[in-house]
Write a structure and sequence with these properties.
Layout lengths: L6 H17 L6 H25 L1 H4 L17 H19 L4 H23 L4 H7 L3 H10 L4 H22 L3 H7 L4 H4 L4 H22 L4 H19 L6 H27 L2
Helix pairs in contact: 1-2, 1-7, 1-13, 2-4, 2-5, 5-6, 5-7, 6-8, 8-11, 8-13, 11-12, 12-13
């Protein structure tokens, strides 16, 4: 479930909370806030479990992943599927607290969560599917808080999609050699030799698209102050990263958690002082 590695949960959570803030006019209920925090943790955990179930034979051949419980057979396939079913059941209980539109959106998200692990076997850039999957909390938040899917929802999804392509390409550099040996797809392989410009371009596109929502919602200067700090932080992280080094690239990936937090604060304060 990767509970010892919460970075994935946080990167999934920040855009969902931004969507919740936008959809509720800056005043999300404590109840909805708690539901989305718990739901994000549960669904990210479920995604990790089903990913490891599909990849159990592949992970056993990769240095970074060969000690995962399914890869080294400490956990059986049936036990993993039982855990996955339990997590989906818990998510369903949370989903029943929301409206019908949320249910429809969640059904689409679950399909993506289940089949994303297969994407790297058939697509050269499986991060495209990840970008859609990891953006699923955004329409779910709009559906739950406003019972609608306005244009701002899809602009936010596009911003998040670009951001995910950026940070997950950085993450994929860590596995590039293993993915090449196993014949798997990866944006780090597809953009080989151009990883740095790819990460920068998608990251900048994501930040600019996030910022465009400030213009749409006519936020005051405080939003732009925090947003400016976010962009400066991103540039500093970027120029201090050696993308030829897997460990440095992985550190850049983890630093995106701070970028997500700053973006959330920008939108939250922007809505409070609208």
């Amino acid at each position: 479930m990767r509970l010892d590695k919460p970075i994935g949960t946080m990167l999934l959570l920040w855009p969902s909370l931004i969507a919740l803030v936008l959809a509720s006019g800056g005043n999300p209920s404590i109840y909805l806030f708690a539901v989305f925090c718990m739901g994000t943790l549960i669904m990210r955990s479920a995604g990790c479990v089903i990913n490891d179930w599909f990849d159990r034979d592949i992970d056993s051949k990769v240095l970074r992943t060969h000690t995962r419980p399914l890869a080294d057979r400490r956990v059986s396939s049936n036990e993993a599927l039982a855990l996955f079913s339990l997590l989906l059941s818990l998510a369903l209980i949370l989903l029943f607290q929301l409206n019908l539109l949320s249910f429809y959106v969640a059904c689409l998200i679950v399909v993506l969560v289940v089949f994303y692990p297969l994407a790297k076997r058939y697509l050269k850039i499986p991060q495209i599917i990840l970008g859609i999957t990891f953006s699923g909390g955004i329409p779910l938040a709009f559906a739950a808080a406003s019972n609608s899917l306005p244009s701002a929802c899809f602009i936010l999804m596009l911003a998040n999609f670009f951001w995910i392509l950026s940070y997950d390409t950085s993450y994929a550099i860590s596995d590039k050699q293993d993915d090449l040996a196993l014949g798997l797809g990866s944006s780090a392989i597809y953009f080989e030799g151009k990883e740095k410009i790819t990460i920068f371009t998608f990251g900048l596109l994501g930040l600019i698209t996030f910022g465009s929502l400030g213009l749409i919602y006519e936020y005051n200067f405080l939003f732009y102050v925090i947003f400016f700090v976010t962009i400066i932080g991103y540039f500093l992280f970027f120029i201090r990263t050696s993308f030829s080094s897997p460990s440095s690239s992985f550190n850049f990936f983890k630093k995106n958690n701070l970028i997500g937090f700053l973006m959330f604060m920008a939108f939250y304060i922007g809505e409070l002082i609208l």
